[in-house]
Amino acid sequence: MGTVLGKIDVEAPKYEMIQSSPDYEIRKYPPTVIAEVTYDPSDYKGDKDGGFALLAEYIGVSGKPKNIKPEKIAMTAPVITKSSDSKKIAMTAPVITKSSESEKIAMTVPVVTKSGEGEEKKTVTMQFLLPSKYRKAEEAPKPVDERVVITEEGERKYGVVKFAGIATDKVVKEKEAKLKRSLERDGYKVIGKFVLARYNPPWCVPAFRTNELRLLI
Questions:
Q1: Confidence band (pLDDT; 50, 70, 90) for 112?
Q2: Are residues 148 and 191 in the same domain?
Q3: Parallel/antiparallel/unpaired status of strands 149-153 and 16-20
Q4: What is residue 86's predicted lDDT score, i.e. its pLDDT?
Q5: Residue 97 — very low, low, confident or very high, per pLDDT cuts 50/70/90?
Q6: b/e for 10-25, b at 16 or more Cβ within 10 A?
Q7: 23: closest CA among 212, 182, 185, 189?
Q8: What pLDDT does residue 140 have?
Q9: Which runs of E-coded beta strand occur in the chain?
Q10: Average pLDDT, whole number, for the chain?
Q11: What is the largest CA-CA distance in the chain?
Q12: Are residues 184 and 95 part of one domain?
C-alpha cells in the first residue's frame, strides 16, 4: 500500500474521468469484487478499523492466508471507509463455506469501512477491494472465517476531492460538507454519505499521504 514517502506501488481501481474542475472530479467506477467484515467497533478499543485483521488474514498479508486455494494475489489500493445511512447493515451474499485449505491472496485496496447505526448498536463494515482479475464474487477464493463475506459492488459514479495529511474525523467532515455544497451547486444529487479512500499505510509521512473524499451521485 505504499511507502513512508507516499509512493503507491500497488494496483488501484481504474475509473473513467467524466469531469474535472478546481473543486472536484466526477468519476465512474466499474463493478468491483470485495471482501468485507461487519463488526462492532466497541469490541476493538482504540481501533476504529478493527475488522482489518480479519480481512488481512483472509488475503494472507502475513502468514498463511485463511482462504481455500493457494494463490498469490497482488495488493491493491486505496483503503476505503464508507459511511452508510442504513439503520442496520446486514451481511451480504454469497454465503461463504469454511475450508481448511488455503489460497495466498495479497492485500488489495481499497479497504472499505462502512459505518451505520444498528438496531441496538453502531456497526462498521470494512471492505478490501479485490484485484481486477476477479470479475465475479464466485471467482474469488472462499474465506475460512465465516465473518468474511465476498460480494460485488456495481458500477457507480462519484464526486471526488483529493487531500493530503491525516484524515481525522474533523477534516473528513469539513471535506464532505464542502464537496456536497459544490456538487449540489452544480446540479448533482448526492446519494448517501461519504466514502473515504486512503492510499497509504499508517507509517507514511502525513504530508505525503493521498486521501480522497467521495460522494455517490
A1: low
A2: no
A3: unpaired
A4: 40
A5: very low
A6: bbbbeeeeeeeeeebb
A7: 182
A8: 93
A9: 16-20, 25-29, 32-39, 79-83, 111-117, 122-129, 149-153, 156-163, 194-198, 211-216
A10: 80
A11: 53
A12: no
Residues 6+ apart with CB under 8 A from 184: 190
Q: Which of 104, 132, 153 is the last residue before a domain boundary?
A: 153
pLDDT at 55: 85
Backbone angles phi, psi at 172, to 5 degrees: -60, -45
pLDDT at res. 98: 38
Residue 201 belongs to domain spanning = 16-28+155-216
* CA-closest candidate to residue 2, choices 200, 203, 171, 156: 200
CA angle 211, 24, 157 (to 5 degrees): 85
187 and 149 in one domain? no
- Exposure of 213 in the CB half-sphere (CA atoms within 13 A): 25
Q: Tell me the residue type at 184.
A: E
Instruction: From residue 14, give the alpha-carbon distance in Å to each of 3, 92, 110.
Output: 21, 24, 12
Residue after which a domain boundary falls, among 153, 171, 196: 153
User: Which segments of 154-200 are extended strands (E)?
Assistant: 156-163, 194-198
CA dist 5 and 12 (Å) reads 18
